[in-house]
Write a structure and sequence with these properties.
Two copies of one chain form a homodimer. The first copy, chain A, is an alpha/beta fold. Chain A is built from 35 helices and 33 strands. The longest helix of chain A is centred in the last third of the chain and has 26 residues.
Chain lengths: 887, 887
């Protein structure tokens, strides 16, 4: 028995997305709900994979099953596919598991040919018949026979010119008939084959074309960019046609049950009278607001409202629907969970909890981490906005602030972004699937035409890119590579700024500022629910009081990493160099105590005050000292130049001496060299000064009533004896300071676990350290034997690129390598807690803000993750997701 | 009840070395065997530790137990300690668990004072009485009161001059009496206290002095140098005196049951008539050969022969004995396992197996790895020897060849060796414990005076340093810092060569050559027995046919690491640079195929022939390519200079371009960068060429009837996908070559396990790799986070130095870190074999030749260790030791 490759809509349901694709499952579910869905059937994703895997041959039984299914549809529609006298017309649409807007191909009106077009013309209306036929030839030829779409547009323009009209609906039946003739000639010329007159041949070729489109370049690029697996395949939906282009009581629309941009609970959509669905999406004609139907087609509107309510209640999710009204009657062509902006996602989730549709937990699970990220993206600074020249205002199609150089085609935009690393704004009359690679590469998108559901708007929202659509005021000259608005001409390469939330376009680069977290009321509600659910605490990495303040405002419950080396940079570097160059220990310690101690103390004091009541982990100096010295190569050039000039004076001598010192300090592999606690052990004065600064600051703050919880972190431990050596020396300093200040503060001493050996011997290390913090950047470098400074440039990006070497599933510096580094983390937590059951364990590498890595940290039983302040909200959400997923 | 701090000799035995020290246990054992041992007792090492740990106070009960024990001795000797009328005299000697020759202090004739000396003079002989007394004052004052020993020697010289004699025994009773008076005055002047007349006070102070000497600088230095623990403490032996200085039928001797230099089964030793034991050891008087006793004192000789036989049969080990003959009667003062040269150790072990005294396994266990090392130390080249000026011939006190600069005092010798890294020969009239630090630092030792059992000879043998002793022909002028022989004057800093085995001294530096392994018959027997015992195979690291040949001659059972990068060095570097600089892939591959392929093939062919029948693991190119390029810094200087001169020509342009390339290739942490299989994966042409060379060579050799077993090793794997990517490409090349050549060879593909992640995911890796080879150099670097290129210089040596930071028990690059790196090794073996039960696992890092690391490899279940050819014999022995120890 052959496999079941074909499902009638009534045979499927919403749970069969893997097999039927998103569109097919939605059509099946709606059919099951008794909603007005034109009958049809779905060829499964398995059929697609079988076809692609078998040298592009239909799997056995597929065609027979299509014939049988078509017979059922014929009966329901009381028509007959391929019968010239009573023809059934069908659409053929792709539908993968995950929505890939515009990526896959669609053909409408399939079944028409030179004979049946006359039947339709006679039965219905000649204009409609010939319009439908020319659409078929146009779409079919483009999709199946790969004829350049612009050539068809040129013919249409010619005919419109001949007839003296501008809009498609104004073209006469004769005009469309003429178009068909010209189209057919064009197809013959361009592809070498005739447009097939046999409807079954049309169907067969169309289904094959959809299957093949899964491996088209556009589809692969899109999946690479969005992380969708290449192994899913697409389903093909064959559905009997209903016609929005059959007169003025007909039309096609796209609508959302709620506003996908703001999340308001307000029906939202667009409608084109006397048009097929593709006209809405293409953006070629600007549609009307969907509420117009309330007046223009009240019955259909009422039906639409009912369907909308039914679907949202049924799916408990905002729906994105496509519908057609044929002679006043509503037909549903698609429903799916609607794409939305991050703001809308958050508002809808919160509202639906209030409406009793979903639980708080559902709401938390519905928000994805990248949406939080988008909400916290920078915005334009108000002052900067006021000072700038506003070029125009279009539709606020996708929110966010983008600054970049203008490019007018996707290829150039991609090239400038990828090869030259430029920030790019893609500006197009309108976008279509061929532009997606440029949109992916761009910081933002600006279109002259198209509405809120146009291709540009939908894709930009999905990609989280700022987009201003339908900015009709701008005039684009693609040949000259310029755009003009209000008399100002913007050339290719000029910089503009887009405010996607306001729909505004500015000349030049506006300054951006961090968003005001307090204004994100719904987000704060969601994160509050996340906080109730999660087991992991979320701490932040902050090196100064300002960062600490921001971290706390974002919900950080502690500082997991305060890097003291940043306190030696900038204007302080010179002082630190003075210490490093000191010729005696006395001089070294004098500079430390007199100059650096007060500076550090002040920093720490500020941080303790901001983090009143919360723990603050301060890491002792970590990087090798030569990082604070002048560049060896520059000194070498300088000294060589001086020598070439024959200089021998004091300046030359000083430079030469400095060069010798820097050369002596340089290391072949500094990452594995004299740094971290190795510095502390070989030059104990440095760490002692730091601990003194920490405890002086802590005591000072404590005296003012601040509840301080300093935790001193010793970096780069590889052997427990290092801790046994240095920790007591430092604890002694801490005790001494507290005695001097006459006040005691709660404190801990602990260590980074960032060397594989430390993880392997965590039981020994925990006998001394009171806390562990995984430094997963270094731990990854050493466990993987990969230097991050070099490897990404040299080979790692190629390793992790699915379309290149495809050796690593992920870049291990972005997402924790569970098999390798993760194994060490699990081992270290277990061993450490065996010796010290109350061991505090966290992570302070960059992985601390990565949701997938946070999931691992949850499973490993960490107490907290620590990440950059901006990632704190994401981490709060991700920690809740982890708690729910791993129950 | 207080602890037992004191044991009479009859209360102890040989097993109580920890408590009684080596000497004390030996005296007890001999007492138990009924041998003629003067009665006495031992204060335990525990008493010493208690004393030192308690602010240098005797532990409670010690003194009382000494009093009780002395009473027993009094009775046995029919004398009474501290009784002026019938005084018992005793010796006080140190005796730690491990022999530390000359390190600890000895006092003889204790119990004498101004009163009892007259009793002895009356009872025995005035010369003897006063000689004994002056010895007591001299030794006591030096050891207990810290008076400079030379001052006593000066007084003796004066008296000898006055009396017109040259040798000690010729000094008259009056002379010695005068010496005592002068000594006492000297002591008062130098130390501020009187020489104590109370024998009990003498005893108390003497015991304390021995205890304290455990922590003397000499003792600590010696223990640091030889790896003896500082926690053992020393015992104190108090023994009733017998006198070798009581007349010409008396004397003292030192003897070995077999020859400690050659191992011949021939009684060996030296004897001084009318002398105490210290006179023999000090080397101040040249003793006679012990066989003279056969004629001069036949009864004592017969007794000595009997004792010797008894002891060797009892201990089943060559014994080193001290004895005294008092008026013709033999007394035994010490027995212990005799120190011996490596050659003697091997011969004795083999002989004792033949004699049925010990088993083969005992014999194997008796040879220590450093002895094998010594036997394989370089020797002087015969031609070089003939061409050189032979300065003199002395005693062949300790074998081996040493070349170095002459220094005449231990401090300078140590300084030149340690601070300036010079090879040094220490030349002294004779040595004493104060010279040991100089002997440790020197390559060899030359003395003017002293015999085969003199301090210099004994210590040099123990340290394995070449030594020529008693080269009386040379005249040393310590003030002028020269030595003169045969009219030639050698100044400080001049180079000489010592042949310790021949006892010869040459002017200038002789060339050394590797020893002829085939001549080491006994060693080969021992290693043959080791081969029967061991479970680990021993392979060798060899990069060319010559090394492979040597490895095989030393017993290697395969090549565990053939590094191909060495094949790109030397004159071939230029060719390889040409490939690296190729601008197109075609050019790159052309250079590889036309130039490098034939070179590599030739190397491999030679190795396969040498290793006929044995496996050869060839590692594909490992180091980063920039290692084959000119130095970046040098280019930078060159280009800067050219710029300073205003050069713009072609040469400048070429240099500048090269600099840019080298700068682009350089990495921050090259060890973790683009190398190993990362190179192979990103530039597959390189590895393909290498595999082609390997298989062309293998097939060519196989056609000639050579049994080739090539194993291709892919370096630096971190993720199984790397192997999945590259291995099939390379296997394809191998198959293709075999097809071309029309012959098949047995082969394997496998990988280095040198990155922690590879060990952690060894199960996955073993699904592709057919063998593992632990690259423990890199594995240690990454597991420990330590760059070997930098760290030893920067901090690691201080970390591993017990007298400095003392953080690491060992340098992990010398001995495998069992807790960290070892954990990964155990894990990887287990995981790998779980997936591939017949997985071949070995080690090819430098640890492969380290005995302690070999023990770990045995326990981890490795198939083989691979080390440098010269270490193969050591590894064979160490593998047998591991097999025995871990049964």
């Amino acid at each position: 028995m052959t496999k079941k490759w074909v499902y009638l809509f009534e045979e499927g349901n919403a749970k069969m997305r893997d097999l039927l694709g998103g569109k097919g499952a939605g059509l099946a579910e709606m059919t099951g709900l008794g909603l007005p869905v034109p009958p049809g059937f779905t060829c499964t994703t398995e059929a697609c994979l079988e076809y692609l895997g078998n040298n592009n041959k239909f799997p056995e039984g597929l065609w027979d099953q299509i014939l049988v299914a078509m017979e059922t549809v014929n009966k329901k529609m009381d028509r007959k596919f391929a019968d010239p006298k009573n023809p059934l017309l069908v659409s053929v649409r792709s539908g993968a598991k995950f929505s890939m807007p515009g990526m896959m191909d669609t053909i409408l009106n399939l079944g028409l040919n030179d004979e049946s077009v006359n039947t339709i013309a006679a039965q219905a209306d000649p204009r409609f018949a010939w319009d439908s036929y020319r659409r078929l030839v146009q779409m079919f030829s483009k999709v199946v026979l790969d004829v350049d779409g612009h050539l068809f547009e040129e013919i249409i323009q010619e005919i419109k010119a001949e007839e003296g009209v501008t809009a498609d609906p104004q073209v006469s039946p004769k005009g469309w008939q003429k178009a068909v003739e010209k189209f057919k000639a064009l197809v013959k010329r361009e592809s070498g084959v005739e447009f097939p007159q046999d409807p079954w041949k049309q169907l067969e070729l169309a289904v094959e074309a959809v299957f093949r489109s899964w491996n088209g370049k556009r589809a692969i690029d899109y999946r690479n960019a969005t992380g969708i697996s290449h192994k899913l395949g697409t389903a093909v939906n064959v559905q009997s046609m209903v016609f929005g282009n059959i007169g003025n009581d007909s039309g096609s629309g796209v609508a959302f049950t709620r506003n996908p941009s703001t999340g308001e609970n307000d029906f939202f959509g667009e409608y084109l009278f006397n048009a097929q669905g593709e006209d809405v999406v293409s953006g070629a004609r600007t549609p009307t607001e969907v509420h117009k139907l309330q007046v223009e087609a009240p019955q259909a509107w009422e039906a639409l409202m009912k369907v909308s309510k039914t679907l949202e209640t049924h799916y408990k999710e905002m729906q994105d629907m496509e519908f057609t009204i044929q002679n006043g009657k509503l037909y549903m062509l698609q429903t799916r969970n609607g794409k939305r902006t991050a703001a809308a996602a958050v508002k809808i989730a919160v509202d639906m909890v209030a409406e009793g549709l979903i639980t708080k937990e559902d709401a938390v699970m519905r928000i994805e981490h990248f949406q939080v990220d988008q909400l916290l993206h920078p915005r334009f600074d108000d002052a900067s906005r006021k000072a700038a020249v506003k070029l125009t205002k279009g539709l606020n199609a996708s929110p966010g602030a983008a600054v970049g150089e203008v490019y007018f085609d996707a290829d150039t935009a991609e090239k400038k972004a990828k090869e030259e690393g430029k920030a790019v704004i893609l500006v197009r009359p309108e976008t279509n699937p061929d532009d997606v690679h440029g949109m992916l590469a761009a910081k933002g998108v600006l279109t002259q035409h198209g509405g809120a559901t146009s291709h540009a708007a939908v894709v930009a929202r999905q990609l989280g890119k700022p987009c201003v659509a339908g900015a009709e005021e701008i005039k684009i000259d693609l040949r000259a590579r310029t755009m003009t608005v209000k008399g100002i001409t913007i050339k290719e390469g000029d910089v503009i700024s887009l405010d996607g939330a306001a729909g505004e376009v500015y000349q030049g680069a506006l300054k951006t500022v961090a968003p005001d977290f307090d204004e994100q009321k719904e987000l704060k509600i969601i994160l509050g629910w996340a906080d109730e659910i999660r087991k992991l605490m979320v701490w932040a990495n902050a090196d100064d009081p300002k960062q600490a303040k921001r971290a706390r405002s974002y919900g950080a419950q502690g500082i997991g990493l305060c890097r003291t080396e940043h306190m030696f940079l900038g204007e302080r570097t010179e002082k630190f160099q003075e210490a490093i160059l000191a010729e005696t220990d006395e001089e070294f310690n004098r500079v430390l105590d007199e100059v650096l101690l007060p500076l550090q103390r002040e920093d720490f004091y500020g941080i303790f005050k901001e983090m009143d009541g919360l723990p603050v982990i301060i890491r002792l100096l970590d990087p090798p000292l030569h990082e604070f010295m002048p560049s060896k190569d520059e000194l070498l050039v300088e000294v060589t130049r001086m020598e070439a000039k024959g200089e021998t004076g004091a300046e030359y001598q000083a430079k030469k001496k400095l060069l010798a010192i820097v050369q002596d300090m340089s290391e072949f592999n500094p990452m594995l060299g004299l740094r971290g606690c190795r510095l502390g052990i070989t030059m104990p004065g440095l760490n002692k000064m730091q601990v003194r600064a920490i405890f002086e600051a802590a005591c000072d703050a404590a005296k003012e009533g601040v509840k301080v919880k300093p935790e001193v972190m010793i970096p780069l431990t590889s052997h427990v004896n290092e801790l046994k050596h240095i920790q007591p020396l430092l604890e002694e300093v801490a005790e001494k300071v507290m005695q001097e200040k006459g006040i005691r503060v709660e404190y801990k001493f602990g260590t980074m676990i960032e060397i594989p050996r430390a993880a392997l011997t965590a039981d020994q290390i925990a006998s001394v350290a009171q806390f562990f913090s995984f430094g997963t950047n270094d731990l990854t470098q050493m466990t993987y034997g990969i230097s991050r400074d070099d490897a990404e440039r040299k080979f790692l990006l190629r390793y992790a690129d699915e379309s290149d070497l495809n050796i690593l599933p992920k870049n291990p510096f972005q997402t924790l390598d569970e098999e390798g580094v993760g194994q060490l983390i699990f081992m270290a937590v277990e061993k450490g807690r065996m010796v010290r059951p109350d061991l505090e364990v966290g992570i302070c590498g960059e992985h601390g803000g990565d949701p997938e890595s946070i999931d691992l940290c949850h499973r490993a039983g960490l107490n907290y993750v620590s990440c950059s302040p901006f990632r704190v909200p994401i981490a709060r959400l991700a920690a809740a997701h982890a708690a729910i997923k791993n129950r």
